[in-house]
Design a protein that fits this description.
Radius of gyration: 19 Å
Strand content: under 5%
Oligomer: single chain
Number of helices: 6
């Protein structure tokens, strides 16, 4: 389990040096690829809550996939083979190896097999990257209560399965969460 993402993290939530308002340094603002097409770099989050939210999503996604792999058995390792797909209805569900599951797939599987109370916001919505799921938002667009409910639901899922890594990660995350919310941050 890799908790280094949260451990020894200083509470300095500032943009890196040489970054313009667009989030890119002057020499990175536009690249031209081999095909002659112009591509721009991915923008870095400009708000501490956005950055923390993305880090939590990435970290927890890995933890949930690992948990599904440990508890799921052969059921989550099955894959629909190409020859089976040819003989199967187009509406029949396809089986994907658990390592290809999304965070929402993992939570659905885990919470279906061990009843975990449905919250508002649902953990799979709170833990979705902004605008990639109906209702998903940037970190700064969630209220403090939404953060507490979303992370609390994740903690309940971990406890329902006796998984210590999720609880430990949330414990390490807690001081950073409180530090950011205690700062006088204004939305961008």
């Amino acid at each position: 389990m890799d908790l280094s993402q949260f451990r020894q993290y200083t509470a300095s939530y500032k943009n890196p040096p040489n970054v313009t308002n667009s989030g890119l340094s002057d020499d990175e603002s536009m690249n031209i690829d081999d095909d002659g097409l112009m591509t721009s770099e991915v923008l870095q989050p400009s708000h501490a809550l956005d950055l923390l939210h993305l880090q939590v999503i990435d970290h927890c996604s890995r933890l949930l996939v690992e948990l599904v792999g440990r508890v799921g058995g052969e059921e989550v390792r099955q894959i629909t083979k190409a020859e089976d797909e040819a003989n199967t209805s187009q509406h029949a569900p396809r089986r994907r190896h658990y390592t290809e599951w999304s965070l929402a797939d993992c939570l659905e599987y885990l919470n279906k097999h061990r009843t975990v109370k449905v919250t508002s916001p649902r953990a799979e919505v709170f833990l979705s990257k902004p605008y990639c799921h109906l209702g998903a938002r940037r970190g700064q667009d969630w209220s403090r209560k939404d953060w507490e409910v979303g992370l609390g639901s994740l903690k309940e899922t971990g406890m329902a399965w006796g998984d210590m890594s999720i609880g430990e990660s949330l414990t390490v995350l807690e001081p950073h969460f409180h530090s950011i919310f205690s700062m006088k941050l204004r939305p961008t």
